[in-house]
UniProtKB/TrEMBL annotation:
Membrane-spanning residues: none
Listed name of the protein: Mitochondrial splicing suppressor 51-like C-terminal domain-containing protein
Species whose genome carries this gene: Corethron hystrix
InterPro entries, per the entry: Mss51-like_C
Domain Mitochondrial splicing suppressor 51-like C-terminal: residue ranges: 56-259
Residue numbers spanned by region Disordered: 230-277
Biased composition (Basic and acidic residues): 234-260
Superkingdom of this protein's organism: Eukaryota
Amino acid sequence: PTPHPLVPQGSLAAFSREGARATEASGRLSRSATVAEAMVRLNVLDRWVPDVLGAPNEAPLVVHVLGADGVECDSEATLRTAFSPLSRWIAASPSPPSRLVIKLIGPSIPPHAAARPPVNLLLRPSPLPSEDAPSPIPRRRLRSATALCIPRPYHEYLSAMAEVQRLDRRVDRPALAVAFNAGIWGYDSWIPTLRSMARWTGRPMPFVITSYTPEEGEDDADAVEDALLGEAGEGEKGGRGEKLLGPERKPFGSRKERETQGAAEGRVYKENFSWQA
């Protein structure tokens, strides 16, 4: 496989090799690889590069996972399966943030997950820089990587963040938001979330949406455009949103077919098969 700035060769092979083991591995790695590819394609990590004097930026890298539920949040094990690979890859990158925080937010998160304290994704400390490879810029180290589950619709969460900011209190601003297999086209409950994101006045926040099929990706794109048209002023299109990529087939979708009730005839469903931002 072609080298990737974040995903190591061994993990990349899961998305190209034949065989049952590689197919299973692609399913386990798909969420982490999706976020890693989004960080590269959308230049998310650039803002954590040290400044010209080499002073480290202690701001955490915050990722929001929207519409999360028991698939990711059921247990510490499911959270680590989904996101520990990402934490390891970021830890091994040339200039990682000092902290990685993944917040999984959605109204369907089970109560036991909401009561759980933040889960450590980085079970082994990230390595210190090698003394054999001196650099004029001190190499930073990922000191912590955590995931926590928050049972709340995302538009309500954004409103709470805005209120905290209004009171001049510090908030961890998201650098990236992701909705895995969201089915935005099928749920009106996404409309207030999309419109709240369009009105968000904080740092620009890329929003990645994945889908089970190319057709659902197109349907999601139409649903997003329709929702944002409701936020647009006269003569504007799409509110404050800007299309960054897709919908298109994603390089790190699961290769494992998914059994889906009510599946459209002739369609093959795979997690994170298509994406857009």
